[in-house]
Design goal:
The chain is an alpha/beta fold. It has one domain: UDP-N-acetylmuramoyl-L-alanine:D-glutamate ligase. It has 8 helices and 14 strands. The strands form 3 sheets. An 8-stranded mixed β-sheet has the order 4-1-9-10-11-12-13-14, with helices on both faces. It has a 4-stranded mixed β-sheet with strand order 3-2-7-8. The protein has a two-stranded parallel sheet with strand order 5-6. It starts with 6 loop residues before the first strand and ends in a 6-residue tail after the last helix.
């Protein structure tokens, strides 16, 4: 299997198909732009960012035994990602995500993560069969977990002894799936990475900004949260602490994957021993560099 992983990334590993235009756009418009296909999914986006900080993540996910799946794994391995723990299923197609971005903002997106949902708990087998851990020696490192998993599986993870010693870092896949994280909201070893809209959906509130969103999550029982608000302030919060940082003013060139980059950079900072305000600043800087670049990865 190679090097022992620094972190496990559990969730979506798929192909992103992204259409981008510099023109203003509304539903029904037909505009010139660029269409790219590149590896994506929350778990994979986090893993790819972690490699840029000299970390060695392992992926727990599923791809199909098809051309798209094998091409995706080949790309991931070429980046140095540990794919030995990815389930290859001959009966499921490789998942996809499609988005349209206009002037640096998301206009619309569709996530086809049905194979990940269908695979269910089978993707977690390496945590039980000895490849990464087992019942006698559960995984005790960092786990980045994304909300593309079903609510039932997330609830199972919240109660599972296999995750009882893990440092859980959790992100919704999108606002539409934020409610799936409710079983993990009060988990004593969880850190949630959300935006304001996702925080509101998790808490049944309508926060006016990142600080209000963070307060609502802590009040709802979350142990630790990081809340972003686009170009507004980002807040890191736990029961006795609130840290605030302001992103730089910039022109956004892309948005898909920005939250994943923020989360990965924050995790990498803390694994390197950087904490508190400095870790938050590093995460904001990484996300800002990402959204202001028009490079494909």
């Amino acid at each position: 299997m190679g090097k022992t992983p620094d972190i496990l990334c559990i969730g979506s590993v798929l192909w992103d198909i992204i259409g981008r235009t510099d023109h203003a756009m509304q539903a029904g418009n037909d505009k010139p732009g660029r269409i790219t296909r590149l590896p994506g999914g929350v778990a994979l986006n986090i893993a790819m960012t972690l490699t840029r900080f000299d970390l060695h993540p392992a992926l727990l996910s599923v791809v199909g035994d098809d051309v798209e799946g094998h091409a995706l794994l080949a790309y991931c391995r070429a980046m140095g990602l540990n794919c030995d723990t990815v389930l290859i299923d001959p009966d499921l197609p490789t998942d996809q995500y499609m988005a349209i971005e206009a002037q640096g903002g998301l206009l619309a997106a569709l996530a086809d993560a049905h194979s990940l949902e269908a695979a269910g708990a089978r993707i977690l087998a390496p945590l039980q069969d000895g490849r990464l851990a087992n019942a006698a020696a559960p995984w005790s490192g960092v786990v980045a977990l994304d909300g593309n998993l079903t609510e039932g599986l997330l609830e199972e993870i919240a109660q599972s002894p296999a995750f009882g010693a893990a440092d859980l870092r959790i992100a919704p896949a999108s606002p539409g799936k934020a409610a799936r994280l409710r079983p993990l909201l009060e988990h004593p070893r969880a850190t949630l990475y959300v935006n304001c809209e996702e925080a509101g959906l998790l808490t049944g509130t309508k926060p006016a900004g990142a600080m209000a969103a963070a307060d609502a999550l802590i009040h709802a029982g979350a142990r630790r949260v990081l809340v972003t608000d686009g170009p507004g302030v980002a807040v890191a919060a736990q029961a006795d602490q609130r840290l605030v940082a302001q992103p730089p003013v910039l022109t956004a060139r892309r948005i898909t994957g920005a939250g994943d980059t923020f989360m990965a950079a924050h995790i990498a900072a803390e694994l390197a021993g950087v904490t508190g305000q400095a870790a938050l600043a590093r995460a904001i800087a990484a996300a800002a560099a990402y959204v202001s670049s028009d490079q494909p990865a």
